[in-house]
From TrEMBL:
Domain NAD-dependent epimerase/dehydratase: 16-220
Descriptive protein name: NAD(P)H-binding protein
A GO MF term: aldehyde dehydrogenase (NAD+) activity
InterPro entries to which the protein is assigned, alphabetical: Epimerase_deHydtase, NAD(P)-bd_dom_sf, NAD(P)-dependent_oxidoreduct
Gene Ontology annotations for the cellular component aspect, listed alphabetically: cytoplasm
Amino acid sequence: MSTATSQPHTPHTVLGSGPAGTALARELVRRGHPVRLVDRGASGPEIDGVERVAADVSTADGARAAVRGAAVVHHCVNVAYHLQVEVMPRVQEAVLAAVEASGARLVVLDTLYPYGETGGAVMTEDSPWQATSRKGRMRAELDERYLAAHRSGRARVVLGRSADFVGPGVLNSSLGAAVFPGALTGGDVVAMGDIDLPHSYTGIADVAAGLATLGERPDGDGRVWHLPTAPAVSTRDIHAMVEKRVGRPLNVVVLDRPRAYGPFDEQMMAEYEEMFYQHTEPQIVDSSAFERFFGVAPTPLADTVDATVTWYEAWLRNG
């Protein structure tokens, strides 16, 4: 295991204030770094040690302003499904140009989409990129450009890939608002596809810790890493963990095909149809390379479920 690290009090900028960006900002502050958290409106609650900044990083001027003064930039920007193919390449172009001009290192939060359908094979960093969906091909093309930018010396880049998010603050996920509010209130719990297949979920705290580690460890640059992810279990197993925590059986509604239901509206599910294979074949992520190299282990899923239920209890109480 290599041990080269960046120094504490290194200025980090986090682009995107969704669940991952917000959790990462808190983790970086915990590690002693000054943090700027950027989104289009500088919205959201105050976070101790975090400066909120408004910028549109899909524009050249906005991206330059956002990264100014940062030694490390974390790209956690995402947009609605129906906008991804149009907007994400623009964000990449602007952010890459900005870090090239500033000299900052770039840490990119990535998805499993470039792998496409695997037939249930375990996904490692060496798995082939064989996506056929529009969003999968787009992500693969972006990743090729990030890695090419690093190889050419244009920018110093590293990518951290995550499975489906689960955890405090995660709403728009297959283990988010579709599951936990219903589990706590006796309402419907929505699941997709075959819930008996093994499926990897990455805890949002592990996403944050993994990205923070990549930001502190330039010896990991120039490649894709799988962020720390607990061993895959079935979604039914996750439901059993939730049932144990909430003390009641779940009323599970399984969507065997993409259709609007609960928090999943027609527009979202129409866009998600091409990605539905993720719920009809095993999705198994191997993060052992990251764990060995950086000495970081994932949080046990039972602990993540406990923390998520606790967060949703407070969220429901506060309306």
